[in-house]
Amino acid sequence: MVGTVADSIHRPCYVVGGFVRDLIIGRHSKDIDFVTVGSGIELAEAVAAKIGPKCNIAVYRNYGTAQLHAGNLELEFVGARRESYNRNSRNPIVEDGTLDDDIARRDFTINAMAISVNGDSFGELVDRYDGLGDIARRIIRTPLDPDITFSDDPLRMMRAIRFATQLQFTIYPETLASIARNAERIKIITGERIKDELVKIMRSPKPSIGWELLQQTGLLAIILPELDALRGVEVVNGRGHKDNFAHTMQVLDTVAERSDKEWLRWSALFHDIGKPLTKRFDPAIGWTFHNHNFIGSKMIPRIFRRLHLPLGAEMRYVSKLVELHMRPIALVEEEVTDSAVRRLMNYAEEDLEDLMLLARADITSKNEAKKQRFLDNFDLVEEKFVDIRHKDAELAYRNPVDGNEIMHIFGLHQSPLVGYFAKNLKQAIKDCEIEPTREASIKYLYILGEKAGIQPVNPPLYPLDSDQCTTSPND
Ligand code: ATP
Ligand code: MG
Q1: Sequence-separated (6 or more) residues with CB below 8 Å from residue 11
Q2: Phi-psi region at 445: left, alpha or beta (left = phi > 0; alpha = psi -120 to 50)
Q3: For the whole model, what pTM was predicted?
Q4: CB 111 less than 6 A from any atom of ligand 1
Q5: pLDDT at 5 over 80
Q6: Residue 427 has what pLDDT?
Q7: Substitution site in 22, 101, 108, 111 for ligand 1 pocket (most atoms within 8 Å of beta carbon)
Q8: Which domains does the chain have, with CATH numbers?
């Protein structure tokens, strides 16, 4: 359809960039970018007229682009352009250009392909830089000199690493070396745009790919030095500690394998963030990281603010999980008592399952027997969660009038009749036949007594409006 309209106004037109890449890879992509030689806005307006009134058009004259929304498709139109950059800004000087100019300004070979939509050449692929070959080789590579590409627009360094993570492609050695050389240039990019790439890395199947690359290239030391500081092993008196960066990456990937929850993944990334600050060497016991969970959780707000991550419930959740991440392990190292398990449940509240998932992922010991022992103990802890929840649910249904009081009211000694009354009363409350109050319960007991041919002989033990017997589940 776009092709027919382009033909009717005698315009070459191509789909380009991400859509072509994703089409070849077989990946879902929701928006389509069209490039035409000449005005993109004119073409967009012609297409909009053809689609009719159900089509929304947004025109951005400053950028020379226009967007169409039709159904769930988003189409973007732009005229082919040539760009030249000035060293101190991300904003290039833009001029009209040819299709080849437009292709050459694109960031990676896999993003620099175009497919014609004109009638006479429909479906022909334009691939000046062997993007097809790089997709087959699973490589991220710049079409032109990478030093110029990255210096012109340093955001491309983040994009290279983000694509490598999303697609699990390798960054071509010269391209990677150039990122390391140009890392400092990332400072001219706004935090908001950097964050967008980090979020895409975190939502990928194996986020460690991105963080490892950020670390290797020196970008991490600039954008998130606290995380970079986890790298390395210090040795004193022949004793080293584990590389906390490698450990964190392992925990992050394990969590990502098991959960899509984005903020649980961020919690995994930051769970040991307090370690560098709390690291001490004690000649008697070796390396310690006392209170690293607590210090780490206190570091979260500053980091979130700097990275433009959300500062509300998401941040509080991450901070909480970082603080609590060692509790399940501490629990199984001591004794798995009901009260300790209950305390853990009370701390974690609705985040208990997430906390346990993180705690399980945190066990990266190479000693398989030790690892299995921890995991078995976690099974035990989780069985206790079920038990305790069960008990609590029972407690919540506990009679507002207990067995003692039933005996007192009817002048009975312990007998099956007392149990029968108590059970019936409980069932009536559970089935919502009566209100769960003492007043309603005692009335109901009188009825049960009447049916059984027994008269009450004493008044209730406690006032009708007291909650004497309704033990709360959290006591
Ligand atoms: P995704 O939509 O998954 O983020 P994409 O490749 O479609 O990936 P967009 O940001 O939508 O990325 O950009 C569309 C196309 O525009 C890219 O494929 C690329 O050709 C080009 N492009 C985008 N940003 C840049 C940039 N900073 N430098 C050079 N070319 C870019
Ligand atoms: Mg896109």
Answers
A1: 36, 37, 38, 43
A2: alpha
A3: 0.84
A4: yes
A5: yes
A6: 83
A7: 111
A8: 1-137 (3.30.460.10), 260-395 (no CATH), 398-475 (no CATH)
